[in-house]
Design goal:
Elements lengths: L12 H36 L4 E5 L4 H17 L3 E10 L14 H28 L4 E9 L4 H11 L4 E5 L13 H9 L4 E4 L1
Parallel strand pairs: 1-2, 1-4, 2-3, 4-5
Helix pairs in contact: 4-5
Length: 201
């Protein structure tokens, strides 16, 4: 119902149009305000659930870095006890000497993977610095896992071992399936996770 009186000659088409237009604007403002109230209430309910441990998956993609920023702010709002900043680093299954190629000797592979691990650790540490500035307790961890293991499964297993209450991921990572609506890793995490998953678009 419109909260004011109208004295309009509806035989005039111009007035009809103006009435419909202003009524549309009125409903839009009202519905938007209601939606904002609902969102605020939902956020409060989530915060009251005490999400003690939040995990964010990082792969250096732009979307995963955006997810990290969101996770940091969300963890602060929820007063979480721990924010886990995690990267799954795929390695060859023969890294530990199982059927290595001639050039893939353990000592060579160790040097290569340690370099990759350190590069990724530097990325995670920069994210951790942001969390530290907000006085959040956080941990940056690079998890080396066989390439034959799906990264989403590895991330889910890690989250279960650490009793995570919420997983935050970006929609697309660095895989070759860029045209998919939801990144393969994000889709796998949503499918197999034991806890709620927040996907950042």
């Amino acid at each position: 119902m419109i909260p004011f009186e109208l004295d309009i000659d509806f035989s005039n088409n111009s007035y009809k149009f103006l009435f419909k237009y202003y009524y549309f604007v009125y409903r839009l403002i009202k519905d938007t305000a209601a939606a904002e109230d609902l969102t605020a209430n939902d956020d409060n309910k989530i915060a009251q659930n005490h999400l003690k441990k939040i995990l964010v998956g990082i792969d250096r993609s732009e979307k995963s870095l955006e997810a990290a920023d969101y996770a940091i702010n969300f963890a602060k709002k929820c007063e979480s006890e721990l924010l886990l900043i995690v990267n799954i680093l795929p390695i060859e299954p023969w890294y530990h000497g199982e059927f290595p190629y001639e050039w893939g000797k353990p000592e060579v592979l160790e040097e290569v993977y340690e370099k990759e691990k350190q590069e990724m650790q530097n990325v995670l540490n920069k994210i951790k610095d942001k969390a530290d500035k907000l006085n959040l307790n956080s941990k940056a961890d690079v998890v080396m896992t066989p390439r034959t293991t799906n990264p989403s499964i590895a991330l889910v297993i890690y989250s279960e071992k650490n009793n995570v209450d919420l997983i935050v991921v970006g929609t697309r990572g660095r895989t070759g399936f860029k045209k998919m609506l939801l990144g393969s890793v994000a889709r796998g995490v949503v499918t197999y996770a034991h806890c709620p998953v927040l996907v950042i678009k």
